[in-house]
Amino acid sequence: MRVTRQRSAILEFLRSKRHHYSATQIYDAVREKIPNISLGTVYRNLASLLEDGEIISVETSDKCVYYDGFISGHSHFVCQCCKEIYDFPLESTTSEPEKAGFTVSNQRVVYYGVCKMCNQSK
Amino acid sequence: MRVTRQRSAILEFLRSKRHHYSATQIYDAVREKIPNISLGTVYRNLASLLEDGEIISVETSDKCVYYDGFISGHSHFVCQCCKEIYDFPLESTTSEPEKAGFTVSNQRVVYYGVCKMCNQSK
DNA sequence: ATGATAATAGTAATCATTACTATTAAGCCA
DNA sequence: TGGCTTAATAGTAATGATTACTATTATCAT
């Protein structure tokens, strides 16, 4: 595995932002530093960074995958009333798959409901 | 919202199997009953069944979405090695959002990792 | 049964992702 | 430092899931 300017720029970008980005968004951002970087290069590096556990990915109901340079786990709460998205820490109990002998490398937890603010205003 | 043969057949198929199917797999299965059903019809109905909460979906690192007619609370485990999707019970602790005074009406939990079988074969 | 119109079939378009290939540039070694 | 090996890249084409479009069909309230 070689450290290329392209790979470094992609990882650096993801680590500099606390947000999720699609491959195309990453492509557009990195192009400001490396104007002729190829979209295929972005995809290839994202795949290998994922495999190395340097970044994580989030699949949504959108048809594209989002990538995140912040590895520390957190869950999301989506308020069905005000549509706000909140972050919460992940609970730290041993998960059911782990109890069954599976190796869990990543998990995604999304809660749907009504947030405190919306609850109070009713 | 009208109850059509197509919509019923899709829902019936998903409820008859305790497994997860992609839109194309559902299309192939339902075509045995309704040979000239359109793939677009499958997608449209899956989207509305999802919105109504009659089915649930699982996003994987594959580029297609999987649908599930078994909606009682359970979590999913996606094996990154063999791509199989396993069901697990949901843990019953009080969730972090509930501790914070939020009302949780639904939650989706997906674990990613390597299943027991793949772990053993290495 | 009839009429309004939501849903469908069939097809074309979109768009994220992957595959392919000639060219470039990391990284090792003298 | 310069040359060599070859992994990685740029650019482009192909793939495949999903969505859009439109004339036609079939549901269902009256």
Shape of chain A: globular
What is the number of beta strands of chain A?
6
- Portion of residues in beta strands of chain A equals 25-35%
Count of helix runs of chain A: 5
Q: Which class best fits the helix and strand makeup of chain A?
A: alpha+beta
Any low-confidence stretches of chain A, pLDDT <50, length ≥5? none
Summarize the amount of helix of chain A as a percent range: 25-40%
- Give the neighbour order of strands across the main sheet of chain A: 1-3-2
The biggest chain-chain interface is:
A-B, 36 and 35 residues
Q: What is the string of helix and strand elements of chain A?
A: HEHHEEEEHEH
Cα end-to-end separation of chain A: 57 Å
What's the average pLDDT of chain A?
86
Which assembly state applies to the chains in this document? homodimer
Largest sheet features of chain A: 3 strands, antiparallel
User: C-alpha Rg of chain A, in Å?
Assistant: 17 Å
Question: How would you describe what is shown here?
Answer:
Two copies of one chain form a homodimer. In chain A, strand 4 and strand 5 form a beta hairpin. Chain A is an alpha+beta fold and 122 residues long. In chain A, helix 2 packs across helix 3. The longest helix of chain A is centred in the middle third of the chain and has 13 residues. Chain A binds a DNA duplex (30 and 30 nucleotides) through helix 1 and helix 3.
